[in-house]
Amino acid sequence: MDFFSSLQVSSTAMTAERTRINLISSNLANVNSTRTAEGGPYKRKDAIFTAVPLAESFNARLTRLGKQQPQGVEVAQIVEDPNPPRLQYDPTHPDADPQGYVAYPAINVVEEMADMIAATRTYEANVTAAQAAKSMAMKTLELGR
Fold first, then answer.
1. pTM to 2 decimal places
2. What average pLDDT does range 23-39 have in this prediction?
3. Buried-most residue among 53, 114, 116, 126 (CB within 10 A)?
């Protein structure tokens, strides 16, 4: 794998993790949202990642013959959580049903925070990998002096 491919892999991973972090932030911000434009409480969202082959030049493809093609990652889709909302008894709430229960999103704050930490660490690991590739490329250029 050349320097540019390793940078591309890290770049695609950082983009995917940024999307995941944004979704987690949205989930945390809407943990108490009982009403949305679609009706009903907010539904937790999650990103599904998939591996994708990196775009490469014809020359790079020829030099790679017989070797595995480098792959990056992208967000294949964003899915809503199918779990039913969490019901809480509060007859004074404006969104309470006739029995006095309010439907809140099925969001576990602790789970979301753990996902946020994992996504942040993954992002940081890809930043470090990109910096290492850049450093190796710079050292290689210095050899020519």
1. 0.83
2. 93
3. 126
